[in-house]
Amino acid sequence: MLRSFFRLPYRGRGLSVAGASLMLLAACANSTPEASAQPGAQAEPAQASVEATSAPMDFRSWRDEFRQTAIAAGIAADIFDRAFAAVLEPDAAVIRADRSQPEFTRPVWEYLDGALSPQRVSNGRRLLAQHADMLAAIERRYGVDRHVLVAIWGLESNFGSNMGDRSVIRSLATLAYEGRRPAFAHTQLIEALTILQRGDVTPEAMVGSWAGAMGQTQFIPSTYNSYAVDFDGNGKRDIWASSADALASAANYLSASNWQSGQGWGMEVRLGDGFDYALADMTVRKSVAQWRELGVRDARGNPLDSGLDGQSATLLLPAGHRGPAFLVLNNFRSILRYNNSTSYALAIGLLAERLQGGGQILAAWPTADKPLSRSERFELQELLEARGFQPGGVDGIIGANTREAIRRFQISLGWPADGYPTHSLLESLRGG
Description:
Structural class: alpha+beta
Helix content: 40-55%
Strand order of the largest sheet: 6-8-9-5-7
Order of helices and strands: EEHHHHHHHHEHHEHHEEHEEEHHHHH
Shape: globular
Number of helices: 18
Radius of gyration: 22 Å
Number of strands: 9
Distance between the termini: 42 Å
Oligomer: single chain
Largest sheet: 5 strands, antiparallel
């Protein structure tokens, strides 16, 4: 959930049940330029072995050296020794997950089908009723809609039933020793030891995802230290066993991420004929009134609510111009700070609405489309670069620069310039 590293590509707070799906989505056009919030996701491990990469020293020597670093940072020797008592070698599964390079991405509509499953909606409604008093108290203190919090709870850990079962200390030690981002993992490991030293949790109970995301709301250690709260008043910030602490911590994080109380996340909209699809970009912000002037209407074709006129909004086309369109508001961006995937943020907004009987999408998804594979995304960028459209590098990630390059190529073809990568676009590039 929150700003961690290994999820969309690394960052945020935690990785979750949704983490694996989101990692698959991270490289497609649904990612945004915002910083991500969650830590790592539990991706399907690729076939790799710990021996595949040689570390600068053996693990025990690294651990002994890191012990001195931790003690110099203020960690008590006995805390370190207890935390590392069972950490005798790297976790091979963590290395496999860290090196995993999914070849194919899931379409956003498939991701939403899973995120918005009837079972998840049913469980969410039951828990809303079961924890009504606690959620009302959190809502009063932080101003964050309880339905959004329960949606996050559901996507991050299936309402606390799947928080990950790996030792956070061992996972982070493995990543600090030979992961792709050792400096970040090193910092998170010190933060995790600080949590243990404070006494909020024992080493045995500090479990989470392969990337170190923890608890019912999947915080990475640094986010935990900055935003976790003791809402149930037992003297500990326990995001593992206390739903009150976990949900209040998520609310505290969203509140600090500029959540606007009483406002929604956005809405499905309909675009008029001849609309300039190049405006559908997370970098473009206009007032709702300005979008109305450009011909944007609600999903049923009615004028946009004038009560929203002063709010800043962005147009989102998660599947290009042939799929549904959404006008997203400030709170959507707050959710993006929890996890930097527009697919995730859209799922949270829609799930929050489905918990209240809404959240249905009226427009059809282009389900006949198949997302580009990772190798095809590389090829797309290479061909754009060769043709002089300047995608900003070849890394397989469809970011802002690549979307702009796609738009320039689409304009040259006389196509709608939505910046969305498709097989037909790739074929046109291949054809020269």
